[in-house]
UniProtKB/TrEMBL annotation:
<dbReference type="InterPro" id="IPR020084">
    <property type="entry name" value="NUDIX_hydrolase_CS"/>
</dbReference>
<comment type="similarity">
    <text>Belongs to the Nudix hydrolase family.</text>
</comment>
<dbReference type="InterPro" id="IPR015797">
    <property type="entry name" value="NUDIX_hydrolase-like_dom_sf"/>
</dbReference>
<dbReference type="Pfam" id="PF00293">
    <property type="entry name" value="NUDIX"/>
</dbReference>
<protein>
    <submittedName>
        <fullName>RNA pyrophosphohydrolase</fullName>
        <ecNumber>3.6.1.-</ecNumber>
    </submittedName>
</protein>
<dbReference type="InterPro" id="IPR020476">
    <property type="entry name" value="Nudix_hydrolase"/>
</dbReference>
<keyword id="KW-0378">Hydrolase</keyword>
<feature type="domain" description="Nudix hydrolase">
    <location>
        <begin position="1"/>
        <end position="117"/>
    </location>
</feature>
<dbReference type="GO" id="GO:0016462">
    <property type="term" value="F:pyrophosphatase activity"/>
</dbReference>
<dbReference type="InterPro" id="IPR000086">
    <property type="entry name" value="NUDIX_hydrolase_dom"/>
</dbReference>
<dbReference type="InterPro" id="IPR022927">
    <property type="entry name" value="RppH"/>
</dbReference>
Amino acid sequence: WQFPQGGIQFGETPEQALFRELREEVGLLPEHVQIIAQTDDWLHYRLPLRYIRSDSDPICIGQKQKWFLLKLTASTKHIQLNLSDPPEFDQWQWVSYWYPLGQVVNFKRDVYRKAMMELCMRMPQYTAEISSKYE
């Protein structure tokens, strides 16, 4: 279980990489989503030794990630999981905001928690709820 993700190619901005990966992995175009927020800083995780492929070039020991909070502005009929060969995902579903923390592989859990904690503070309904409690 994981969110769509991917690397940034030479010359791409994080936003350009976001839209490219979103298209490749789930079929969505920039006009199908709205960027609500992104993490202020890059977040990191290290791979456990058993997942490091020493025969790859370069050797990947972890990832540095920029996270984005998106709002789907189009119909879910635009979601297509079969655009890459092989497909990177075999299913998708709507879930509650914190559900991914219980599903993601353990070594990614901390980076998911950090990103989700930061991004939840920028969700319009969350900030409206918090501000109304203190007015």
